[in-house]
Amino acid sequence: MSLVRSKICGITRVEDALVAAEAGADAIGLVFYAKSPRAVSVQQARTIIAALPPFVTTVGLFVNASRCELGEILDAVPLDLLQFHGDEQPADCEGYHRPYIKALRVKAGDDIAAQVARYPKAAGILLDTYVPGVPGGTGEAFDWSLVPHDLGRPVVLAGGLNAANVRAAIERVRPYAVDVSGGVEAGKGIKDADKVRAFLAEVRRTTI
């Protein structure tokens, strides 16, 4: 049996990052996508990362960012891992000297295994809910039975997770990690400390 890792995404405040770290999150996500209500500036991201204790992975989320924009952010912000949430092709995700995970939005009829196979250099694949025109953060769950058992890559499960359903999600999908944003919020981009702690407690209690 093994423990499932966890990421609290959409962090916009130092206090929320510290709550996540203290409650046992393995990673925090910082959104560099201006259209998101959880977007952070370079300075916000630097301040949040500087406040973190050791051994918390910092993940930068990007949606169809240009190489120039992404390069400028990486020059200024010490991110550990990149998360691509748009229509990026494999070549768009590579060449930044950092590991990356590719987000795929799941809907009925998708050949998830074929999509995953297109990104052989990805450190992991994040599976999120498909909603037309929205790259992520919808707060809606998808049908977990659509996920194949062995995709050949570590799977990060996202989409509509919260403390009430994360155990069932883990038991059904058996992912490497789970990713939550809206399910632990008091408002867009503002985390609820009690919800964060409850979510992470459920994750830690569930092994695969």
Automatic annotation (TrEMBL):
Q: Name one GO biological process term.
A: L-tryptophan biosynthetic process
Fetch the InterPro entries from UniProt: Aldolase_TIM, PRAI_dom, RibuloseP-bd_barrel, TrpF_fam
Annotated catalysed reactions: N-(5-phospho-beta-D-ribosyl)anthranilate = 1-(2-carboxyphenylamino)-1-deoxy-D-ribulose 5-phosphate
**Which positions are tagged coiled coil?**
none
**Enzyme class label:** isomerase
Q: Which residues form the signal peptide?
A: none
Q: Which GO terms describe its molecular function?
A: phosphoribosylanthranilate isomerase activity
- Cite a single Pfam family from the UniProt record: PRAI
Q: What EC number is given for this enzyme?
A: 5.3.1.24
Q: Which UniProt keywords are given for this protein, alphabetically ordered?
A: Amino-acid biosynthesis, Aromatic amino acid biosynthesis, Isomerase, Tryptophan biosynthesis
Work out whether the entry's keyword set contains Amino-acid biosynthesis: yes
Q: In which pathway does it act?
A: Amino-acid biosynthesis; L-tryptophan biosynthesis; L-tryptophan from chorismate: step 3/5
Q: Which parts of the sequence belong to the N-(5'phosphoribosyl) anthranilate isomerase (PRAI) domain?
A: 7-200
HAMAP family, A to Z: PRAI
Known NCBIfam families for this protein?
Answer: PRK01222.1-4, PRK01222.1-6
Q: Which family does it belong to?
A: Belongs to the TrpF family.
The UniProt entry, under PANTHER family, shows:
N-(5'-PHOSPHORIBOSYL)ANTHRANILATE ISOMERASE
Its recorded name reads N-(5'-phosphoribosyl)anthranilate isomerase
What species does this protein belong to?
Zestomonas carbonaria
Organism placement in taxonomy:
Bacteria, Pseudomonadati, Pseudomonadota, Gammaproteobacteria, Pseudomonadales
